[in-house]
Design brief:
CATH topology of the largest domain in chain C: MetI-like fold
CATH class of the largest domain in chain A: Mainly Alpha
Number of helices of chain A: 13
CATH class of the largest domain in chain C: Mainly Alpha
Helix content of chain A: over 70%
Oligomer: heterotrimer
CATH topology of the largest domain in chain A: MetI-like fold
Mean pLDDT of chain A: 86
Order of helices and strands of chain C: HHHHHHHHHHHHH
Strand content of chain C: under 5%
Low-confidence stretches of chain A: 9-18
Chains: A mainly alpha, B alpha+beta, C mainly alpha
Number of domains of chain A: 2
CATH superfamily of the largest domain in chain C: MetI-like
CATH architecture of the largest domain in chain C: Orthogonal Bundle
Chain lengths: 315, 384, 286
């Protein structure tokens, strides 16, 4: 053995590969990671990059894509009032539905946490809508909102408030809110379960200490439980908000964005511009998708920054 | 300050099973420090939580200063509790942890300030008032928990194994701190622990519990010296009391105890009780009441001599534990000996049993057989 | 909203009961709100449309089981159901295997690029589907995967890998390293370790991701609506939409169609409610 080889060996005092279970041979890594990485490259990374590329082109069927620079974005931001309408709708949806989701979920969880009878059964029933597809939920609620025989109007008439009856989904003033109610209905159970888990993870002794410190249930809720649930509340707010910025399915199924763009969201507008309008241009909707993604990223970043600043709570 | 009277208290948890607490009666005097001692799961924490009002009572009564509090919610009982987990409010700094309970009771700001500062300075917490619990060490958190109870100046302190999460050295100093605070304030305290050292050193009285029932109540040394049954005998003392099966044999008008090849006189115990034992008894003798022949203090008169075989020697530094098997008997016994002992495993030794300190238990009921009194008293009088 | 933990025997019990009454009322109302619509659909599925229009909220007077046969035979329901089954079962199986392989690597091994791989894969969780859907449409067209179940399966697997890896890695990382060291000393190879230690121990986590992916994919709508247009390729959610479109006014028939779609989910949920709840919420609890 040459001196050089010896020196090299001395320089690498690491244990023999086969005995360090934190290391794997290159072949192992390739076998385990390759399928995922190839799939990702072809069907996630490439599509994302291609959408970015699309966004600066005009792409019509049977035509060579034409580079248009930032024209799509300029048109979008400058004089596409449908886009702005969609942004407004999506923002209203994201803000109000998120607040309702989080507060409502907390309320449901507290009801179960306060040892209401049959809590286990109620928990299961209240969660059911979460499991149903948007198609099923959407169709059922289209019926509920039906002007003639839908439950909403039937109840109003029954309690003598017939004057308030609406064509809930047909009237631009109520359509967005009606869809929102359905969306909240579908997801309340989800937030409830997360809150319930967090409530049960609260240290029993701290709640006991609060009782000895002269707290009734309401004082305990305000001074102890909600402050201690803060991480969960923030977490669910982010999750819920980001989810709603991407909302598509339920709107598409219930109203298709109508009437008069009153329920148009950014996502439904992307879909329409790509597949329903006779412009047949994939470039412009790609620009919308890219812009919206960047905005979502900013929100995620900002919200997670807020969450990071929160103080650690150790029980 | 208050007197806590518990009458026939029982607790049954949902889901059935054995009751966690069975017909427990106990009175804690004004300013008294009462320790509830027992193995984990004996129901002592349940008793505490019922006194606090954190758990519903199945049956029985709890009265504070003569007023039955069964139906008074926890918040109105004016009781402060220190929890094993400390139960500090994680989102509040130390000052607010201490002040929260006072604010909730509508106490004036200046008074809150005064009390919190007072407690914090007593407990050495002044530098940490602006810190949150997660930035404190275990000992500091423990002091905050204690402080939170102190500032309240409640009628009753409840302690639920408050020292069990501390390391050994801290535990000793916190123990003394806690005793000092309680004695200074003169507030009635009920302290739950499974640690016999805490029980022996802290309480005015100890209440020993097992399986939800009171086994024995008394002053610490009283209970140590006169265990009511084999449970107490084994539970108090480390190493525990030796319990040696013996046979009770008639010898003329009197009785003799036979352990292996050795016979012991029974004049410490009334003959008529011995006659009812059915020939069997458990002889209880603490390791410190066994002596190597040479080390026996001369004044001990009532001595039995036994031959034994040394099985193991465990030097602990200040003392040495010797594990022996008595000749002709299967049981192993532990003897506490000085550090200068010469005994080695495999040796044969002659040891002496201080019969005046021995106890006799009925193996059927596990209860102690009360000794003829004068003999006992004389022995302790001498020892003290 | 905990009731006071103090005791409430006799007289006090009555007061506590009164205090509990609003809570009970709330629980009852929300139970009707959340479960009622499904019961309503179930009732309508057994009634004919004229009956429904006569009285939408009545109980079935005579039960029309034959509607289920009609719905199944007169539309393409069988095909939709079969398509959904193929797509979801294949995608979930692939997701589980591929996801577990990646999660094992990330949780177990230190290798160069570890952080990069993790970042790339987990960033998939925040990519909105809209960002990929248009170019996926183009790409699948170019690869001749448009309007094929294979194409949809691939897209599903790529799209849900992130959450799968996220959940599995969290679980795998908690398996004690000693176990792997011991296996290594016993002469197991890396792949054997994956197969014989990580996977068997990880069964609960695998079960969770299987449940989660199954429910989400069974209900998936957006990708399917963009990537499938032929009727005999449609998955169940698309099929129901299509059915709804064709029978707009035949409410009774659509209700039967809905019942066929939600029946299996309700049935599974009745038996495995805990598992399904845990599965659906797995990614959100940290």
């Amino acid at each position: 053995m040459t001196e050089r080889a010896l020196r090299q060996r001395a320089a690498t005092p690491s244990p023999p590969l086969a005995l360090d279970a934190r290391r794997a041979s290159r072949a192992t890594l390739i076998i385990l990671l390759a399928p995922a990485l190839l799939l990702y490259a072809a069907f996630m990374v490439y599509p994302v990059l291609r959408t970015f590329w699309n966004s600066v082109h005009t792409i019509k069927p049977n035509n060579v894509p034409a580079f248009v620079g930032l024209d799509n974005f300029r048109a979008l931001l400058g004089h596409d009032w449908v886009f702005w309408k969609a942004v407004g709708n999506t923002a209203i949806f994201a803000i109000f539905a998120t607040i309702a989701d989080v507060l409502g979920g907390l309320l449901l969880a507290l009801a179960l946490f306060s040892r209401v009878p049959f809590a286990r059964f109620l928990r299961v029933v209240w969660f059911t809508p979460v499991l149903m597809s948007y198609v099923v939920v959407g169709i059922i609620w289209v019926w509920i909102y039906d002007y003639d025989w839908g439950l909403a109007n039937v109840i109003l008439r029954a309690v003598g408030l017939g004057g308030f009856e609406q064509s809930w989904l047909g009237d631009p003033r109520t359509a967005l809110w009606s869809v929102m109610v359905t969306h909240i209905w579908k997801w309340l159970g989800f937030n409830m379960i997360i809150f319930l888990a967090a409530l049960y993870a609260l240290p029993v002794d701290v709640l006991g200490a609060a009782e000895l410190d002269n707290c009734g249930w309401f004082a305990k809720l305000i001074h102890i439980i909600i402050p201690m649930l803060k991480p969960t509340i923030l977490n669910l707010t982010v999750l819920s908000f980001v989810g709603k910025m991407m909302i598509f399915d339920l709107v598409w199924i219930m109203t298709g964005g109508g009437p008069l763009w009153s329920t148009e969201t950014v996502s439904t507008y992307v879909y329409k511009r790509a597949f329903d309008w006779n412009t047949f241009d994939l470039g412009y909707p790609s620009a919308i998708a890219v812009l919206w993604f960047l905005i979502i990223l900013v929100f995620i970043f900002a919200l997670t920054q807020i969450m990071r600043q929160r103080e650690r709570l150790e029980f | 300050m208050a007197r806590v009277a518990i009458t026939e208290l029982s607790k049954l948890y949902d889901g059935g099973g054995e009751p966690a607490v069975k017909d427990l009666s106990l009175t804690v005097g004004n300013g008294e420090f009462m320790v509830l001692l027992g193995p984990s799961g004996c129901g002592k924490s349940s008793v505490l939580r019922m006194i606090a009002g954190l758990e519903p009572i199945t049956s029985g009564k709890i009265a504070i200063d003569g007023e039955i509090v069964n139906e008074i919610p926890a918040k109105d009982r004016d009781i402060a509790m220190v929890f094993q987990s400390y139960a500090l409010y994680p989102h509040m700094d130390v000052f607010n942890n201490l002040a929260f309970g006072l604010r909730r009771r509508g106490i004036a700001k200046t008074e809150i300030e005064r009390r919190v500062q007072g407690a914090a300075s007593k407990l050495g917490l002044l530098p940490f008032l602006k810190r949150k619990p997660h930035a404190l060490s275990g000992g500091q958190r423990q002091r905050v928990a204690l402080g939170r109870a102190i500032v309240r100046e409640p009628k009753v302190f409840l302690f639920d194994e408050p020292l069990s999460n501390l390391d050994a050295a801290l535990r000793v100093s916190m123990r003394n701190e806690l005793i000092r605070q309680q004695r200074e304030m003169g507030i009635t305290a009920i302290y739950v622990t499974h640690d016999q050292v805490e029980a022996m050193t802290m309480g005015h009285r100890i209440c020993i519990m097992n399986k939800g029932e009171v086994i024995q109540i008394g002053k610490p040394l009283e209970v140590y010296r006169n265990p009511a049954n084999t449970f107490v005998a084994r539970f108090l003392g480390n190493p525990p009391m030796n319990l040696i099966p013996t046979s009770v044999e008639p010898d003329g008008g009197a009785y003799q105890l036979r352990v292996g090849g050795m016979s012991l006189p029974t004049d410490c115990w009334p003959a008529e009780t011995l006659s009812r034992l059915g020939g069997k008894a458990l002889l209880g003798i603490r390791p410190e009441d066994l002596y190597e022949t040479a080390q026996r203090p001369d004044e001990r008169r009532r001595i039995a001599i036994a031959r034994a075989h040394v099985i193991a020697v465990e030097p602990l530094g200040a003392e040495t534990l010797i594990i022996l098997s008595l000749e002709g008997a299967a049981e192993e016994v532990t003897m506490r000996s000085g550090r200068e002992t010469r005994l080695r495993p495999g040796d044969n030794a002659t040891i002496e049993l201080d019969l005046a300190a021995a106890h006799l238990f009925d193996p059927k009921t596990a209860q102690v057989i009360p000794p003829v009194h004068e003999e006992r008293e004389a022995r302790w009088a001498k020892a003290e | 909203m905990k009731p006071p933990s103090a005791v409430e025997p006799s007289a006090a019990k009555g007061i506590a009961y009164l205090r509990g009454a609003p809570l009970m009322a709330f629980a009852l109302i929300y139970t009707i709100v959340s479960g009622g619509p499904f019961l309503w659909v179930a009732m309508m599925s057994l009634r004919t449309t004229p009956e429904i229009f006569a009285s939408p909220y009545a109980l079935p007077s005579s039960i029309h089981w034959e509607k289920f046969v009609d719905a199944w035979t007169k539309s393409n329901y069988g095909t939709y159901f079969w398509n959904s089954t193929i797509v979801v079962v294949t995608a979930v199986a692939l997701l589980t295997v591929i996801g577990a392989m990646v999660a094992h690597c990330l949780a177990r091994y230190r290798f160069r690029g570890n952080r990069l791989v993790r970042f790339v894969i987990l960033s998939g969780m925040i990519l909105p589907p809209q960002l990929m859907i248009l170019s996926l449409f183009q790409i699948l067209l170019e690869y001749h995967l448009y309007n094929t179940l294979t194409g949809l399966i691939i897209v599903y697997v790529a799209g849900h890998l992130a959450i799968t890896v996220y959940i599995l890695e969290g679980f795998f990382a908690q398996i004690p390293q000693d176990l792997f060291d011991a296996a290594r000393l016993d002469g197991y190879s890396d792949l054997e370790i994956f197969w014989r230690i990580t996977l068997p121990i990880g069964v609960p986590a695998l079960f969770t991701t299987v449940t989660l992916n199954f429910i989400i994919l069974w209900n998936e709508f957006l990708y399917a609506v963009v990537l499938l247009t032929e009727d005999d390729k449609r998955t169940l959610p698309l099929g129901i939409m299509h059915f709804m479109g064709n029978h707009q006014l035949d409410v009774g028939m659509v209700a039967t169609g809905l019942m066929i779609a939600i029946g299996p989910v309700i049935l599974l949920y009745a038996f495995f409610s805990e598992t399904m709840i845990r599965g659906m919420t797995a990614g959100a609890v940290r």
